[in-house]
Structure formats: structure tokens, C-alpha cells
TrEMBL record:
Full protein name: PKD domain-containing protein
Family matches, as SMART domains: PKD
Domain of life where this protein originates: Eukaryota
Biased composition (Basic and acidic residues): 187-206
Source organism of the structure: Geodia barretti
Keywords: Membrane, Transmembrane, Transmembrane helix
Region annotation (Disordered) ranges: 186-206
Lineage: Eukaryota, Metazoa, Porifera, Demospongiae, Heteroscleromorpha
TM region(s), chain numbering: 127-150
A matching Pfam family: PKD
PROSITE patterns documented for this protein: PKD
Length: 206
């Protein structure tokens, strides 16, 4: 006598997981409950995986495996999976559980990261201030050089203008100064003039 097994009647179907307990922080015991709508239950192996790298738990029969208590050691997101296996096949159900307030992706901070950022920011600020100081010194130095150069040129031009103006107005002192300067320029002196005069008188002719 042969026995015909209909997979649809044996395979565990309509699995669902419920969870109760305080999920606001780690260290609180949670109660997980498993229900099944169709399929065999007594000969089915139920495997619980709580998603935190702990060992899986295998229990035979829904009566024994239907209620599980578990405590998470740290905050985080966990995927709880239950796999039901029997001669009709295998079926699974997964739910996500969040414990506490885990950090969002990309917001993790490493020890010393803030200090390193502050050091880099301070270094950049110091370099910028040094560069600014050097630029200010160069600008001020260039201004001083240009100022004194123009001042010296202005004084020279002013002196030449006064000499020229005095000469055109008939100032004897200015004219004598101009004559002296002219003699120095052409290499003429009174001594050389006196020598030429004596030579002319001795010969009696030019």
C-alpha cells in the first residue's frame, strides 16, 4: 500500500512572526512568536536565526518552536529569520527588528577623528595668516620705497625750479650759484683764467 503525499498539504505555509517587549534599548528580553497557517507542524524542523551572528536554534514541532525569548546585547538593526523544513520542502519568513537608536549609515565617528579635523583646520588657518602677513609686509615695503623715491625726486625738481625762477627774476645770489655750477660743469676756474692772463701779458699778444 502506497501513501501519496501532497506537497501543498505538507509544506509549511503562511508563516508569520510577532515580537513583543521593550525595543528601546539593548539588554531587554524580547518574546518572538511564530504562527503557521498550512502544512505539517509536528514533524517540521524550525530553525531560528536572530541576525546577530549567534548560533542558530533548531527545534522540532511548532508547539516547542513557536515561542522564543531572546535578548540583544547591543543596539542595532537585526533580521530575524525562521526556516521551516519537512518532507514537503522548506519555507522561510524574515522580519526586521530595531533595538535602541542605532547610528545612521555614515555617521559613525572614530576616536581622534574630530581632533584630526581640528588640527588640520588650525594648521590651514595658521598658514593662511602667515601668507597674509607676508603679503602685507611686501605691500607696505613697496609703498614706502615708492614714497621716498617720489619724495626725493620732488625735492630735486623743487630745487631746480627755485634756481631757475631765481635766475629769471635777476636774483644775484641765484645767478652766482648758477655761474658756479656752470663753471664746475665745464671745468673752468679763476686760477686757470689768471694763468691765461699772465701768458698774454708776457708775450704782448694773443
Amino acid at each position: 500500500m502506497s501513501v501519496i503525499v501532497h506537497i501543498g498539504e505538507v509544506l509549511a505555509q503562511g508563516l508569520s512572526i510577532g515580537v513583543q517587549g521593550d525595543q528601546s534599548k539593548a539588554g531587554q528580553e524580547l518574546t518572538f512568536s511564530l504562527t503557521q497557517e498550512k502544512g505539517l507542524t509536528e514533524e517540521t524542523i524550525y530553525t531560528w536565526d536572530f541576525g546577530d551572528e549567534s548560533d542558530e536554534v533548531e527545534i522540532k514541532g511548532l508547539d516547542a518552536a513557536g515561542t522564543q525569548r531572546y535578548t540583544y546585547a547591543s543596539d542595532g538593526h537585526y533580521s530575524v529569520r525562521v526556516t521551516a523544513s519537512n518532507e514537503g520542502g522548506r519555507n522561510s519568513i524574515v522580519i526586521d527588528v530595531t533595538i535602541g537608536t542605532p547610528p545612521s549609515p555614515g555617521s559613525e565617528k572614530f576616536i581622534g577623528s574630530d581632533d584630526e579635523k581640528e588640527k588640520k583646520r588650525a594648521t590651514g588657518l595658521g598658514v593662511g595668516l602667515v601668507i597674509l602677513f607676508l603679503v602685507v609686509i611686501l605691500v607696505v615695503g613697496a609703498f614706502i620705497i615708492v614714497f621716498f623715491w617720489y619724495r626725493k625726486r620732488y625735492v630735486n625738481l623743487e630745487g631746480q625750479y627755485k634756481t631757475l625762477r631765481a635766475g629769471t627774476t635777476g636774483d644775484p645770489m641765484a645767478l652766482s650759484i648758477s655761474a658756479s655750477e656752470l663753471q664746475e660743469d665745464i671745468g673752468y676756474s679763476k686760477d686757470s683764467e689768471a694763468d691765461d692772463t699772465r701768458l698774454v701779458s708776457d708775450d704782448g699778444e694773443l
